[in-house]
Write a structure and sequence with these properties.
The structure is a homodimer of 319-residue chains. By secondary structure, the first copy, chain A, is an alpha/beta fold. Chain A has nine helices and 13 strands. In chain A, strands 3-2-1-4-8 form a five-stranded mixed β-sheet. Chain A has a five-stranded mixed β-sheet with strand order 11-10-9-12-13, sandwiched between helices. A three-stranded antiparallel β-sheet of chain A has the order 5-6-7, with no helix packed on it.
Chain lengths: 319, 319
């Protein structure tokens, strides 16, 4: 572990860049939030360098490891090959950051980093070996812990659980395919499905979903909590598909538990209970073993900054 | 590695028990084949003890590690929790074998063992880190190598790739669910689909599939090689679903390659080409990375005995 036992975790979102100074037990000491300069990768590097420098100055630390989660495909060298919401294209983010910072830098996919935080300090903290995490928001991301370590696959692209094909031939996915888990279970999918039902006139007369304009997953969730039955149905349908995908992951990976986080978890058990039911029916071997539990993530929006910092501390300690 | 550098690999099938004396480079020195006493687990133990004793006597070896692949769910202690075709039910196979044999014993799922053989000595021998294997026969099994090692999950039940849900609500699977990969892409599924087309009259007048009686996957394969278009279509349909499942596995696990073995591979590229096409269309990130190749297994029926022996030698060497 680095001298101070502190690290900076950075969570680069499509609109916001969250950062925090974190201790080795996962406690957030200080935090800040900036707008992401999403169309300029070099400006992202400048901003992260400023953030780290500011934390270091304010807390009198000379040198800290930095762990950054990026949305998209991050290869084993910390190059962001592609990101859906930030203008990274084969951008060597880790290398650029190391040129600007004095400490070691870790760059990883944001789903991996959130999973690591949940495994070490969140919903998976009692697990020893294997955890599957899904992050359900605008899209569906994931992270995979096997043998007590993050599993990144051969090139760093593992755990793209949003692109399990659960409904072959189904709704289009931003990735270009159809029927991906992301296309039927993300917040975006929830909003789109509600709009479809509205267009088809397939809503009760008093449904809150009749209101004009686009419907987001959040709109549908708010309506469901206000008692709108159609909104709850749309969320339950997304939850069903989530459970189908989770069952496939349990059969393929045999985790101790499955953790679900992300913005769509504002729907809570309206989403998770149908997922749990669909999963339980489909997990193989329920006759001879316990089906892993499907649990809510505990760290919410902080998983990214905590996971980034913990990963950076681990690698700094090992290196 | 044990003194002799030799081990016995045993592949317990539903009808045949194959065994071989294998050297540390995967060469088969001697082999035999017996009927599996499938309704009596203790008789399986007796038979394996006889086989090992006979190999040891014939080759003048005092003590050898033994690696055994069992069809079904094998937990981390080598207990067979459940097997579809042999009467193992919570049967402590490894413990019973160790009571009878002088060397160390490894018991694992047959899909894991075949995958290990292909990774070390077969189609994956040039891979370093990550390989997905599917065994397509009566059912669909699997094995998973990550970080250069077999990945068994938290309890030993990982890699049940036959129970990825690819066609939710589709044909029934022996596991009790519907739409599992095994229900649409196994040899059994190929035979059943051909029978369905026959029952529905959905075959050309001159199709070889009109013949009465049950149709196996092998029957359909033979007909396809004799130029029967409907038979080739049925195999291609299974291959399509296989490719859908493989795409999900690539997105979830990022392997260097995917290996397909098992009896249904007698259909060769009639099965694999449609699988490759369906996979390629559905793998995420084809714009920034190479899609892993989908290759035939190389060790055919010997994967079980070779993998069992190699795994036993590894563990004996490590222990």
């Amino acid at each position: 572990v680095a001298a101070s036992g502190l690290a900076v975790g950075v969570d680069v979102g499509g609109t916001k860049l969250a950062s925090a100074l974190v201790s080795s037990d996962g406690t957030i000491i200080d935090r800040r939030r900036d707008d992401t300069p999403a169309d300029d990768p070099d400006a992202v590097v400048d901003l992260v360098a400023d953030v780290v420098t500011a934390f270091a100055a304010r807390h009198g630390i000379a040198r800290m490891p930095v762990g950054l989660g990026a949305p998209g495909a991050v290869d084993a060298t910390g190059t962001v090959r592609y990101a859906p919401n930030v203008a990274f294209a084969n951008y060597p983010l880790r290398e650029r950051l190391e040129e600007r910072l004095s400490g070691p830098v870790v760059v990883d996919n944001d789903g991996n980093i959130a999973a690591w935080a949940e495994f070490v300090r969140g919903a998976g903290r009692d697990a020893r070996d294997a955890m599957v995490m899904l992050t359900v928001g605008t899209g569906v991301g994931g992270g995979l812990v096997l043998g007590g370590a993050l599993t990144r696959g051969a090139h760093g692209y593992a755990a793209e659980f949003g692109h399990l094909i659960v409904a072959e031939g189904g709704p289009p996915c931003p990735c270009g395919n159809r029927g991906c888990l992301e296309a039927v279970a993300s917040g975006t999918a929830i909003g789109r499905r509600a709009e479809e039902r509205r267009s088809a006139g397939d809503l009760p007369e008093d449904s809150l979903l009749w209101r004009p304009g686009r419907l987001s997953g959040k709109d549908v969730t708010v309506a469901a909590f206000e008692g709108d039955a159609a909104a709850a149905e749309v969320i339950a349908e997304a939850g069903f598909w989530l459970g189908v995908g989770i069952a496939s992951l349990v059969n393929a990976l045999d985790p101790e538990l499955v953790v679900v986080g992300g913005g769509a978890m504002q729907a809570g058990d309206l989403l998770l209970d149908p997922a749990r039911a669909a999963c339980k029916e489909r997990v193989m071997g329920a006759r001879f073993r316990a089906v892993p539990t499907v649990q809510r993530a505990l760290l919410a929006d902080d998983a990214g900054v905590i996971g980034g910092a913990l990963l950076a501390l681990d690698l700094a300690g090992a290196g």
